[in-house]
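hey
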């Protein structure tokens, strides 16, 4: 993981582990300097950039963020099993809400999609 903050390992708030492959796990790390959380382990397990999540999303609903990450990680794991390269989705829907993954130089940034209202 990039050195975003010193002592970042002290800021791990959660771990998602593959029940079938215990050597596959991803930590969720708090980065106070960026007011965000970032995954640590996606690159190592899947050769895909880590995912940054704004702090407000985690504070608002940690279980939802866990479900989002679990869904993405499951898709990555299935790609490996099929022997194909995983292509991260730019946008996806979960529990009736749309999310975007915007690619940045070092990571993907998760954000809630704007809701379009037509009159």
């Amino acid at each position: 993981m990039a050195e975003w903050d010193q002592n970042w390992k002290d800021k791990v708030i959660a771990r998602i582990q593959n029940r079938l492959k215990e050597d596959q796990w991803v930590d969720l790390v708090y980065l106070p300097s960026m007011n965000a959380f970032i995954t640590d382990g996606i690159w190592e397990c899947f050769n895909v950039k880590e995912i940054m999540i704004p702090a407000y999303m985690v504070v608002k609903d940690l279980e939802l963020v866990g479900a989002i990450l679990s869904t993405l990680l499951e898709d990555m794991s299935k790609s490996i099993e099929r022997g194909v390269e995983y292509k991260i989705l730019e946008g996806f829907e979960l529990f009736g809400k749309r999310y975007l993954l915007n690619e940045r130089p070092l990571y993907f940034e998760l954000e809630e999609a704007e809701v379009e209202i037509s009159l």
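Confidence is low (pLDDT under 50) at residues 1-5. Residues 62-82 form the longest helix (21 residues).
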